Amino acid sequence: MAIEDFAMYLVIAAGGIEMKLQRDLYKHIQSQYPHIWHQAYSYNRQPGTPVRSDYIRAMLKNGELATNDDPKLRQYRQRRRWLYALVAVYFGLWLLRFV
């Protein structure tokens, strides 16, 4: 197998891990923060509210969930950072192949 095959498998695995992390996060938000879940997924949202995952993403970035010290949210952020760091390191190693 060539290095390109490993890169392809890494990207597929990273995408799968990212989807699992988001699915677990959404389940946690649905059970622990029903007001946020209702605001994101109800048909009678307040005017100007972004739809669905955009609303949750905005809450994670600079809303109530951004300043929250919930262990599940910290774990999600930490695992996501590690995943992106792993992909960046692998990409850097792939670039070193051309030097």
TrEMBL record:
Swiss-Prot/TrEMBL keywords:
Membrane, Transmembrane, Transmembrane helix
Q: Which domain of life is it from?
A: Bacteria
Show the stretches that span the lipid bilayer. Answer: 82-98
Q: What is this protein called?
A: Uncharacterized protein
